[in-house]
Amino acid sequence: MKDCPRRTFLKTLALGGAALKLGPFAWDALAAASGPALSIAHYRTSPKEPDGIAEESQRLTREAIAGLGGMQRFVNRGDIVWVKPNIGWNRKPEQAATTNPDVVATVIALCYQAGAKHVIVSDNPCNPAVPSFARSGIQEAAQKAGADCFVMDDRKFKSTKLNGKVLPAWDVYADALGVNKFINIPIAKNHGLCKATLGIKNLMGVMGGERNRFHQDLSNTVVDLAAFFRPNLVVLDGVRVLTANGPSGGNLADVQRRDTVAAGVDQVAVDSFGATLLGLKPQDIGYIVEASNRKLGTMDFESLKPRRAEL
User: Fold this and answer.
1) What is this structure's pTM?
2) Which of 57, 112, 186, 229 could form a disulfide with 102 if both were Cys (CB 3.0 to 4.6 A apart)?
3) Mean pLDDT (whole number) for 206-234
4) Facing residues of 253 across strands?
């Protein structure tokens, strides 16, 4: 466990925020270009027992990030890192509406191994936060891995200039804007309005306000978020995927095993690959097309010659 009292952590956070030069999460274009852009790890089998699934999730996550050159490519000694899973719903991990907690815990462990000073895990869920954090298994797993996992304080959402195409400004969680690095960890799942929830849409979880308004033009609103935040790393959980009745799901019949974790620096490419886990093409998802048109990344993820590992 990494012990960082909350008061000391917030002081450090404030100082870190004053030093940022490259954007809200100090996105490092040099680091992004210094190695492979996409890495995909796949398990040949689908373990059934909980311990087997946990081991699979951990191995896949480590292998996917190793394929990019390791976490030290993205996290420096002393960094404060925000890890953003999907904790949007009061669901159990096997229902595949929230990110696999073992994937999240493994990312946290790798951040500390790379020298991170502190790791924060949070989300602004659609369902009530306290039961959602607990039932997802993410809070317990994150805390055991040494992260500070807390329910967001409504008073800390601050109007922030996004300079987006359709979102000139919006309420953003203020603490999140003070970190050095940002790692997005979505789960691949169906969405009734936009066909898929992947990494770009997962960025809604650091936003406040009336987020239902985003859904009036998802193809542009969430891309405005992607253009503003530019995560240092995206780790896509495809161990289990929700293939229907998303984003909240609930029926285990809608869950399928893909036994896959992908990691990348190109958020458009990661989402484009993620679409295939749901039986879709990148061109089927409006916000992926829009993000590509805005030159935030490529839909042609195969052009990046992804590193692939079969375990």
Assistant:
1) 0.91
2) 57
3) 95
4) none
